Amino acid sequence: MGGLLKSSIAKKFAMALSGLFLVLFLLQHFSINFLSVISASVFNDVSHFMGTYWLVQGLLQPVLIFGVIFHFVMGFYLEYKNRQARQVKYASYKGNTNSSWMSRNMIYTGLVVLAFLGLHFYDFWFPEMIHKYIESHPEDASRYYGELVAKFESPVRTGLYVLSFVFLALHLYHGFSSSFQSVGWNDKYARGLRGFTKAYAIIIPLGFIFIALFHYINNL
Ligand code: HEM
């Protein structure tokens, strides 16, 4: 068991599982944020529920934060190990012969998404944690919509968000479809799902771009 956990196959497996978990989170996150385009009051209600329900705050949120940290720490580690292996074993490694730009640059597209998360946490998550748990303001179920919309007043921030979502698409385009293979699922059903994973990788980031631009334009 110890040997298995240490093996790089187990690490790739864990990397893929954490990626699949984050793919699910993205769908949930997108669905809730999309409500802000449809109705301010519904968005406020759902955000208030997510922000105050003990199961979400006490269990799902810590699991999510762990999943995010695990995914990028393991990503750095596997990249480091891959580079070591390439130097030793494949002196004439030609990266572009049978792989896509996306698959060869997962670490760089991932780094852009990580930088985005830094900005995004600064924008939303840290203020939210300070508001609720440090300054302990009384609950105000109508504040979420205004706080979100205010972030998209700045063209620079909106531009950075949009650019990051393009990199998110590039990252997901390879990551989501290859995760099935990494967890050992590679039969005809898994191959059949490839089209769905590629569509997801484009549609969800495009949806996030739409939300950001919608609020930016509405603010003009
Ligand atoms: C237009 C696009 C987006 C908007 C408007 C948005 C909005 C928000 C808001 C309002 C929060 C604070 C939630 C809270 O009350 O704690 C949040 C948290 C978060 N966002 Fe986003 N988000 C967007 C895109 C993304 C993307 C693309 C990712 C991942 C790549 C992401 C990852 C996260 C994470 C990990 C958190 C912290 C977890 C949580 O508490 O929900 N977001 N986002």
TrEMBL record:
Spans through the membrane: 63-80, 101-122, 158-176, 197-217
Key words, A-Z: Membrane, Transmembrane, Transmembrane helix
InterPro entries cross-referenced by the UniProt entry: Cytochrome_b-558 (IPR011138), SQR/QFR_C/D (IPR034804)
Matches recorded under SUPFAM superfamilies: Fumarate reductase respiratory complex transmembrane subunits
Recorded superkingdom: Bacteria
CDD domains xref list: SQR_TypeB_2_TM
Name this polypeptide is given: Succinate dehydrogenase cytochrome b subunit
Organism for this UniProt entry: Salegentibacter chungangensis
